């Protein structure tokens, strides 16, 4: 019989099964209020939009690009370019929404943000001394992909406002001192999962300057950008004039997850030693050809139709959703404030204005057992922050506010407050 | 500037860019007859089928599974189970078409056959002494995925009828003698790409017996199964009563490539040392969660509708296509026979009855330069077999017969014959 210990070592790492564990916990308590699920809310989904967007893209192929019926069928149903068929449309959206100006040839369309992360890591990391820097806490999809590829990860503790440039600098210097190479830093500048933090303009600029000085790349994950409040700083890529930033995005939040569609922008020139020969995007595409060959042109067509239908502004198309998510964050803050109005300071939380997540600090171990009690006895689910960081998350929990209505949030926070009070009482008896 | 040498070593291996090279050559000679493209023929594609199959699956969800409209929308547009939402339908198809009886829980739906290969290799290969055995010549997608993952590959020379069990045994014994572990053998028993070979019943049974005796797994790629002539032997998985076989399939040939949909069947029990705890499929699913999270439910819905519409028999649905491809193979054989009717035996070819491919041996180096002359001067494209094997392919070329009409094949073989005659003349002058 096959034994688990005999498989790839990543299979024995809890980091690989976080996702399944969370799904399983949610499935066991279907009636609980779940602050665990980071899904976008389905009130913004319309099944009929599949047909509408697909028709819009087919019209684009026939009318604007002048394709014959045979060529249209081929574009949708046949094998296609590994880099994708909607690169121009994505480049136009990036210019419209994010003030990012890039040649469409530097865009690779991927099977979700996850494939974008995987192929980026595989392409960049070659040697055993290469280190991937990540914030601690960090999105499990990045550390999971690194596990599959045997890439060494260095965790940089987040400050209250997210990744602090001085902490990154310290980590970079330590790595160099150890004879290792800081190859890339993964960073979510807007509404980070799981910490909920967003970086200010100065921090963004300093990270780019650091990357340039110490010759590492920034892998920017901009999944939650469309939900940022007006006046938020530009993306790292928009601020990047030295090609230090690889920019990753997804349609899972700005469109819907069922598309499984993302993209990576890699406009860095690659040299063969004598001079520039091609773009980093071309290397990513070579790697992608051995992961999924190419991204489903059907999914690309639907996303393409979506971009054409909204005048290339996913921010505008998501204005209502952005308001909903921001109000959910505000509701959670208000309800927590109401529940913990006593002068007791042992329960605290951050106050993100962007993204789907916030973090609550509690005066007890927020572990699997605590989660089980919370789910079983109080019918409220959350995610232990320890899943996302090696140290410092023991007494913290993540609340996802995206998949709940305001009424559900009120009920959930009330249950959570009861749970927290009772846990505190357990500690002191 | 980033240098190519500074990226992951796989990026410097020609094995990773075979696909792009072939596409690029085809694009440069749009008017050539191309025996290079292994695409399925578009005469069997209907753009309108997208809508029909999708509607059929939605009806299935509403009527047969009794889902509410909200649940239907969630199933199609939201994140979903990593293992897929059409596992039962695929299991029914496997029982109907392939006499493979498996629990649907042992099926993982993947983003094409390529992701199935990648996650299977990542899951199985843990140690530096683990070896992946492949036929030589071998499909570039397997060796490419192994390159990305740093897996050592051992090439077993094919005989005229494909992978010979005695050659596999010799390779296995040699590996064991070197203190290494033969972990798995990748095998395409029906219409192999690129060799065109199909294994007889005895060879299939012997491979399973060998795998059992020497404790390695068989990774069966059954991409071309639906085109096999009546009376072909059963798949390895259908013959497997000791769970030695991991079975991989794709909808790219039986449906259409734009779906980017495949599946892997892994019903092996996994033990944690004390007893069976879960299936190998569950481990594959954990790995998949870090590659593409889950497979697009939209693509799954279309494939599901296809399965429901054809009574779960892709073989029946593809009967006309199978005839077309087999007749194309026969046409190529007939035209080659006509062109090389002289007693000269320096040009020969095999005669596959299944799949998309055949191999022609020529009396000169079939390399990139020869291909360039063939394309430029004779307007006929093919693939050097050296792309698919380390040794033995220097004077061989692969013909793909799938993407051409009989008339195009006649024209193409006539051009190819002229090219071969002139190359031979070049050699002797």
Automatic annotation (TrEMBL), chains A, B:
Top EC class for this record: transferase
Sequence ranges assigned to domain Aminotransferase class I/classII large in this UniProt record: 76-416
Cofactor names: pyridoxal 5'-phosphate
E.C. number(s) listed in UniProt: 2.6.1.-
Pfam families assigned to the protein according to its UniProt record, in alphabetical order: Aminotran_1_2
CDD domains: AAT_like
Biological processes per GO annotation: alpha-amino acid metabolic process
Molecular functions (GO terms): pyridoxal phosphate binding; transaminase activity
Keywords of this entry: Aminotransferase, Pyridoxal phosphate, Transferase
InterPro entries tied to this protein: Aminotransferase_I/II_large, Class-I_PLP-dep_aminotransf, PyrdxlP-dep_Trfase, PyrdxlP-dep_Trfase_major, PyrdxlP-dep_Trfase_small
Protein name in UniProt: Aminotransferase, class I/II
Source organism of the structure: Streptomyces turgidiscabies (strain Car8)
